[in-house]
Amino acid sequence: MAMIGRSARLYSSPPLIPCNLNACCCTSVKVTPSCSNSHEIAAGGSLHKEAGERLLTTRLCPCGRRHFLGGAATMASRPIRPANASGPKSDYKDVLNRVHPPRPGWYEELYAWVLNSATEAYEAEVAEYKSRLFSELKGKAKEVLEIGIGTGPNLKYYDADVQVFGVDPNSKMERYACDAAIAAGLQPSSFSFTQAVGEAIPLDDASVDAVVGTLVLCSVEDVDRTLQEVKRVLKPGGIYLFVEHVAAKDGTALRFLQNVLNPLQQTLADGCHLTRQTGTEISKAGFSHLDLNIASLSSASFVNPHIYGMATK
Questions:
Q1: Where do the coiled-coil regions begin and end (predicted)?
Q2: Is the model's pLDDT at 275 over the cut of 90?
Q3: Helix (H) or strand (E) holding 47
């Protein structure tokens, strides 16, 4: 894979302080992980540990656009598997309600509105980096699941002929995601929104070519279970593309600040954790190959460092 020289901070669950990606430094590491081995990701002579998880739910796009509603019937034929990747089977809606209990409607609406309206400058700034990252999917993925799709800021980076299955635990994101799909030029039959959590993805085994998650594992309840679900729905050789913020190095002033602010971050940013060792979790998840970058963003305040890259099933 062609590695990205600089990191793009893509987010479904925003930090308290937005990031500026114009000034950042990053290093790249390549890991071939094993199910039985734990890994710590080394970068620039320092060790970064990490972990993560996210939520999702199911329903087709009722965004009020007639042509999208018409196309939804085609997407409705997509195989739906209301079960978990492992353990006892249960309805994915039950898992949704347990992992992501219903929030007040005003809270979810406000959060969706903020996410949609407060990131315009950021998205313009990171457009170059996102384009380079998502180019890894071109010619390799025709059916893509995006977990934690949020308001759909990534939809414009997919080819027009790609089928995108978007999932997010916040149903209020749906309207914005549908608008983003229309703006991106996706065909009515090429996009659907499903309210679900990453711990119980309502798709069949080996049903998609790629899974995309940008700043998702910071806010799921069970990181490992989410990653196993990602692997379950991927076809053999499928791609998992990720961007996540992770905990700072132990013993640093930044890590101390993250520990202090973590409870507030979880409250204000819909469960987002500042101190997860997500890179380590991904490396232990049993992917056959992992390309992982670590980036430090100069204006990202306490939401540092970041990892991004691709894993192969």
A1: none
A2: yes
A3: strand 46-48
User: Considering Cα of 166, then 169, then 171, then 172, what sign does the dihedral take?
Assistant: negative
Q: In DSSP terms, which residues pair with 308 in a beta bridge?
A: 243, 293
185: pLDDT strictly greater than 50? yes
The label of the residue with tokens 């990720």 reads 242
pTM: 0.73
List the one residue out of 136, 131, 135, 137 whose CA is nearest residue 153: 131
Please report the DSSP string for 164-196 in residue order: EEEE-S-TTHHHHHHHHHHHTT--GGGEEEEBB
Q: Name, in order, each residue with C-beta under 8 angstroms of 235's C-beta and a sequence gap of 6 or more.
A: 206, 207, 208, 209, 313
Q: What 3-state DSSP class applies to 97?
A: helix
- Reply yes or no on whether the pLDDT at 228 is more than 50: yes
Q: Where are the alpha helices (DSSP H) in the chain?
A: 66-75, 92-99, 105-117, 120-134, 173-183, 223-233, 253-268, 278-283
Question: What number is the average pLDDT over the span 53-77?
Answer: 41
User: Residue 4: pLDDT above 70?
Assistant: no
Residue type at 104 in one-letter notation? P
Alpha carbon 107 to its chain centroid, in Å, reads: 21
Query: Taking each helix axis from N to C terminus, what angle separates 173-183 and 66-75, rounded to the nearest 10 degrees?
Result: 100
DSSP 3-state percent helix, strand, coil across the chain (nearest 5): 30, 25, 45
